[in-house]
Amino acid sequence: MTYHPKSDFIRVMVERGFLADCTDLQGLDEAMSKGVVPTYIGYDATAASLHVGHLLNIMMLRWLQKTGHQPITLMGGGTTKVGDPSFRSEERPLLGPEQIDANIGGMQKVFARYLRYDDSPDGALMLNNAEWLDELNYLDFLRDIGRHFSVNRMLSFESVKSRLDREQSLSFLEFNYMILQAYDFLELNRRYGCRLQMGGSDQWGNIINGIDLTRRVLDQEIFGLTSPLLTTSDGKKMGKSQGGAVWLNGDMLSPYEFWQFWRNTTDADVGRFLKLYTELPVEECERLGALDGSEINYAKIRLANEVTTLLHGADAAAAAEATAREVFEKGGIGDDLPTLALSPDEIGEGISIVQLIVRSGLAKSGKEAKRLIADNGARIDDAPLTDAGLMLDAAAFASPVKLSAGKKRHALVTLAS
């Protein structure tokens, strides 16, 4: 039987493909049709920027606010000190308080692009779980909270089981993480009336823990909802590119490179990605996704423009499209390409082409750059690059040098003035 949602939010989640599981879909739908439901997603501050893998859940928070509910972005200033063991093969490196705070500052810039933070009933809240976790008394916490957790049950969660099945060490520090995350839901409910936690489907066990704890301690009816873990149609984890993570902060990945990531979407993923990552009507997403032949390229450009506009603004999207057209259609250089500016001292008597390919971000190592050249995948000023021993002197940079890896990745090298 097909479920017909009463609330706008659940309808959007179902229609656009955001919904994987919900602890009580009808109960949550009922609650959302009656009034504002404060909802949180937690983000550990392990890097200075969020990446494309986070974007699905950020869009869920955006739709939540657009349908009249209150999003809570919970920064893991406390839990980052412990590290989430979920589906990892090894312990995360532990970060100090200064690095954690700096990372949170970088992540907040992205949230401000998607959510409205103000004092209205659906105004988003930016919170940090260090607010309550840093003040915990260990013995009180063990007595009041720890007694509600069954170790047998915690060992049965897939995220823990997968580590133990591979006989990989799981420290007591990491084992505590799921208790702390459950406690976050309890505190958010107690302090801010939060009634829903959302996350990727790999967080299901942690979300259930928080719901059970809050029901036992506060006797509150709360909910959990997860989104599918996205893979692209060729089976790769969403958000990974040849150059590494696709960062959302413009100072870590240029708007042009971000635009290009979406422009390179596989044909089979275009319709699905339009529904998840843009606000175009569902019918329009389906129409664009059904285009074939060369017409699908129009849909990919529309996808890239819509997603880039949400994050970096319409001007950045237009500049990226213009640069792409200049580079790909006209064989030009394009003003907005990622650029490496070299000083005369860095060039000296000459600089190797292999070093330039690595420093411009087109390869991760000299070995990878040499392989790119050997496989005929590298070009310089649109001409095939076949000599891995090529050296360029300062005169070569009288005008910008364009380097290419394959057909879709380009960078400029200029002489700093």
TrEMBL record:
CDD domains reported for this sequence: TyrRS_core
Stored InterPro entries: aa-tRNA-synth_Ic (IPR002305), Rossmann-like_a/b/a_fold (IPR014729), S4_RNA-bd_sf (IPR036986), Tyr-tRNA-ligase (IPR002307), Tyr-tRNA-ligase_bac-type (IPR024088), Tyr-tRNA-ligase_bac_1 (IPR024107)
Binding residues for L-tyrosine: Y40, Y177, Q181
Enzyme class per UniProt: ligase
Pfam families named among the record's database cross-references: tRNA-synt_1b
Annotated positions binding ATP: K240
GO MF annotations in UniProt: ATP binding; protein homodimerization activity; RNA binding; tyrosine-tRNA ligase activity
Recorded GO CC terms: cytosol
Catalytic activity: tRNA(Tyr) + L-tyrosine + ATP = L-tyrosyl-tRNA(Tyr) + AMP + diphosphate + H(+)
Keywords: Aminoacyl-tRNA synthetase, ATP-binding, Cytoplasm, Ligase, Nucleotide-binding, Protein biosynthesis, RNA-binding
Location of the motif 'KMSKS' region: 237-241
GO BP of this protein: tyrosyl-tRNA aminoacylation
EC numbers, comma separated: 6.1.1.1
Keyword field contains Cytoplasm: yes
Assembly and oligomerization: Homodimer.
Summary of the function given for this chain in its UniProt record: Catalyzes the attachment of tyrosine to tRNA(Tyr) in a two-step reaction: tyrosine is first activated by ATP to form Tyr-AMP and then transferred to the acceptor end of tRNA(Tyr).
Similarity annotation: Belongs to the class-I aminoacyl-tRNA synthetase family. TyrS type 1 subfamily.
Protein known as: Tyrosine--tRNA ligase
Native organism: Tropicimonas sediminicola
